[in-house]
Amino acid sequence: MLDVVGTLVRLGLAAIWLVSGAVKVVDPIGTTVAVDAYDVLPGTVAPVVAAVLPIFELALGALLLVGAGTRAAAVVSALLLLVFLAGLGQAWARGPSIDCGCFGGGGAVAPGEEAYGTELVRDLGFLALAGWLTVRPRTRFALDRRWDRGDGDEPGDGDEPGDGDDGGHGDGSMTEGRSAPAGAGRNPR
Amino acid sequence: MSSRSERERREAAQARLSAAGITPTKAKGGGGGGRQGLVIAAVILVVAVVAGLFVYFSQPSSTGDAAAVAPTYTAARTGTVVMAGAPTAPVTVDVYEDYLCPACQQFERIYGDEITTALNQGKVKVNYHGIAILDRASEPQGYSTLAGSAALCAADAGIWPAFHSRLFAEQPAEGGPGKTAQELAAIGQQMGAQGDFAGCVNANADAAAIAQATNDAAGNEAVAPGGSFGTPTVLLNGTKIEINDQDWLSRAIGA
What we know:
The structure holds 2 protein chains of 2 kinds. Chain A is mainly α. Chain A has 2 domains: about 1-135, no CATH class; about 145-180, no CATH class. Helices cover about 65% and strands about 0% of the residues of chain A. Chain A has helices spanning about 1-25, 30-35, 45-65, 70-95, 115-135, 145, 165-175, 180-185; strands at about 100, 105-110. A two-stranded antiparallel sheet of chain A has the order 1-2. The relative contact order of chain A is 0.14. The model of chain A is unreliable at about 150-189 (pLDDT under 50). A 6-stranded mixed sheet of chain B has the order 1-2-4-3-5-6, with helices on both faces. Chain B starts with a helix and ends with a helix. Helix content of chain B is about 45%, strand content about 10%. In chain B, a hairpin with a 2-residue loop joins strand 1 (about 75-80) and strand 2 (about 80-85). Chain B is of the alpha+beta class. In chain B, helix 4 (about 145-155) runs parallel beside helix 6. Residues about 25-30 of chain B have low confidence and may be disordered. Chain B has helices at about 5-20, 35-55, 100-120, 145-155, 160-170, 180-190, 195-205, 205-220, 250, and strands at about 75-80, 80-85, 90-95, 125-130, 235, 240. Chains A and B meet through helix 2, helix 3, helix 4, strand 2 and helix 6 of A and helix 1, helix 2 and helix 3 of B.
């Protein structure tokens, strides 16, 4: 049941973004310090990133939680994780002793107290989750199921409780989508 | 707008296909929401970025003029505490800062202009407590104390507001060498320090007093509740405040 695995992957990645966004959004000063500690961005840009990043993470988490635009959210997640990995990697290679600040905290730590290896492995694990959803975004209990209804032939795919409110939208986009039945529909004309 | 008729067309097409014995294959990798999902994801993420920018531009540091507010208040020191502003001001703020502490730098970046304005207007007086908890985080060690001591020299030399701001604006990185006494002295002299400023900075004469003040602060329940002391710690009329609460000062002075 790859859909079940995919669903767990999607909800797991959603939880990661929601938690990491939430702890950052309540501590803007700490987040700015953490971003600044990477010593990559100019001092004037770090606060902007520190303000935008937590809300962006929360938005990614929310999209994945409800399963809206799963593939797009997964691709963006993967790109963001690659940026984090690059940041961590350069810090490790170049020398500043920092905590990644991935889930709050962050900033400089005493040399020897860094956990770059653990943090890199963890981010690679998250990247694998995003990779799964990029390749195979199909999951259960996702809003996408309604918009993709033309794709599947299992009945009731997009009909989870509470899904009925904007069914008309879904139907409209289906014909434009790149799903097989819609493509096939063009032939007879 | 014509979803009903399109749906009917599609169903009719599917019926024709199945009549011809063709089963449409499932789209490979379907389930990502297709175009609609893409559009919704893009809209939500763009809204998130805009919301983040809004948060950034609503910080107190961004509400004033582009140029830093020029300090016109007076500052005098007693021991290791620099008292800034009019002694008769109705609101008292105590700020515990370490010159090497990045969060203190952010505190100054976000609230510095707002505090300077309130000081200029006589609405608040601020006791700046130079603290040294990060002496071990510079190489050679001791930048926190050296900078704190130099700032006290700057108070005596009549350049405290500018010198204090400058030390945070140009804060050295943790783990690095920090600024040397010569560099600190040069900054003060460039600002027009009176008296033997370089001699005062080089003497680092307040080092012991700063260490004592740091211990006292860490043992003060109002400053370090439960023995947990960090910088920046800010007291408003004697009560510790949450510095992520961006309205703490404007509320206190009724601005």
